[in-house]
Automatic annotation (TrEMBL):
UniProt organism field: Nonomuraea mesophila
InterPro entries: HTH_ArsR_DNA-bd_dom (IPR001845), WH-like_DNA-bd_sf (IPR036388), WH_DNA-bd_sf (IPR036390)
A Pfam family matched in the record: HTH_20
Protein name: ArsR family transcriptional regulator
Limits of the HTH arsR-type domain: 14-94
GO molecular function: DNA-binding transcription factor activity
Amino acid sequence: MSLESSRRRLDDPAAMRAFAHPVRLALHELLMRAGAMSAAEAAREAGISQALASYHLRQLAKYGFVEQAEARDERERPWKVTERVQEWDDAREPEHSAARSLLEQVIAERALARLAEWGERRRDEPEPWRSAGGVSNIYLHATPDEVAAVGAAITELLEPLMARVGDPAAQPDGSRPVLLTQVLVPLPPTGSDD
């Protein structure tokens, strides 16, 4: 699956709201990392019941985020992600805007929880990894087009690393999954910005 064919532009508010569920985001991430998993395997990894994992995987499938993978045997029914990148734009319709806000809020909350987990286990990590993660704050003064260009440039820079997610053979020794949450927030203008 090429990275370009693995992109999805979310424009359906119902799909955005469905994807914004924390358990569904966790299951989707597990499938991205593992390639394919059965509901039982995903449930064990996520620490939830198999019935709950099955329900949420079916909901993800209903909105096209996952699909059945090729079975390894007759008893298993593994799932896999359909696209590795989800993108969305804002729209003027209130329902779309509300769905986008909900999805972004849940993703941000999940990223903050991951950051807190990282803070607790960082000291137990090998030195190269201890200094690899964290937060930085960078203030810019830019136009909307320049902000969009920054986001596009970051995505282009990351594409070779994102392509490795679905290809274990391309993952170098010593590599492991990394979560990068990009947050670009236009700040309100100050009196000196007029």
